[in-house]
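Field notebook, page 244. I keep forgetting to write these up properly, so this time I am using the form the group agreed on. The chain and the ligand, zinc ion, are recorded exactly as supplied. Prediction of the bound pose follows.
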Amino acid sequence: MVDQTLDVIAVGAHPDDAEIGCGGTLARLVQQGYRVGIVDLTDGEPTPGSPGPEVRLAEARRAAETLGVAVRITLDLDNRQLMDSPQARVKLARQFRRFRPRLVLGLGHRTPMASPDHYQAMLITEAAIFYSRLTRWDDQFRGLAPHRVPALMHYFLNFRALSPHHPGTLVSDISGTLETKIAAVACYDSQLPPDRRHLLERIRIFNQQQGRAAGFEAGEVLASPTVLGTRDLMGLLFGPDKLE
Ligand SMILES: [Zn+2]
């Protein structure tokens, strides 16, 4: 069986990572006609306020529908104990071979004072992109042909930093999809009991601040781990949705 390919896959450690880090960008890519998927490495459970994994999975499905995402996959790696390992890399690389994305959006940087799973997810994602393209490894990939992912961009969850400390930083304009993103994050009732509900406003303000730094009403900071080039400088600077 050949799955329909995806243009973009966002990878999170837990359901809600991709929504919080790059949900506005994903909704915008869907608006632009791209096929977008999310792969969560774990089911994110247990967490303090959640009745169980079924509830969190149902929330994740609702959030994906809110963003317009075509595919959402939850891998069976361990929440709280996520570690970069050859097995974890292969599990994610199988999804890259299956859906053959042009762009992977993965977690960037560490999240001190929050889950260490995010940093492990960054390592797993980078390695899985490499594993995805390797030939002569059929015992691990069971007939899934190698796939070279042409582009990786990082998104960030380190809200407790004033700057992302990343060289290839750019701002993705989410002026038209900020509220869709907030609605997707709000699907996670289990993670947003009354005493944490204010986090939605904090995310909104954070994205407004990031966007305004680039002249947009709202934005998400993304960064390339490798230097970016362009063959179309004027398109990059003044393309259809750019401010002049
Ligand atoms: Zn997380």
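OBSERVATIONS:
- The mean pLDDT is 93.
- Residues 41 and 75 are 5 Å apart (CA to CA).
FOLLOW-UP: compare against the apo run.
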